[in-house]
Amino acid sequence: MEYKLDPVRSDLFNSSYGIKPTVYIKYELNDDKTFKTFTLKFKHKDREWILNEVYKDRTNMTDYCTLTRIEDKFDKFYLAENKLVEMMKVEV
Predict the structure, then answer these.
(1) Going by DSSP bridges, is the β-strand pair 4-5/62-67 parallel, antiparallel, or unpaired?
(2) Shortest CA distance to 4 belongs to which of 26, 22, 29, 36?
(3) Planar angle of CA 83, 33, 26, nearest 5 degrees
(4) Greatest C-alpha distance within the chain
(5) What is the pLDDT of residues 27-69, one digit of tens each?
(6) What is the pTM assigned to this prediction?
């Protein structure tokens, strides 16, 4: 799947954090229609961040998340999202 614009997530992000990036989504499914990966691309001003969520086997539960310019993996989505917000506020 190619990235698709997601204005609802952009509005939700703005409501939650006071930052309104342009948000794009894409995902991969397993053969049984469970999630394999879910990726969010955030564009704000002249910067771009990608948050990628990888799922455990075919459980639709997070295995780990990765984030642009961060080597460590996050075991929970909200931890990666909080780090993203921190980075967006500092880098932009």
Answers:
(1) unpaired
(2) 26
(3) 40
(4) 41
(5) 999 999 999 999 999 999 899 999 999 999 999 999 999 999 9
(6) 0.91
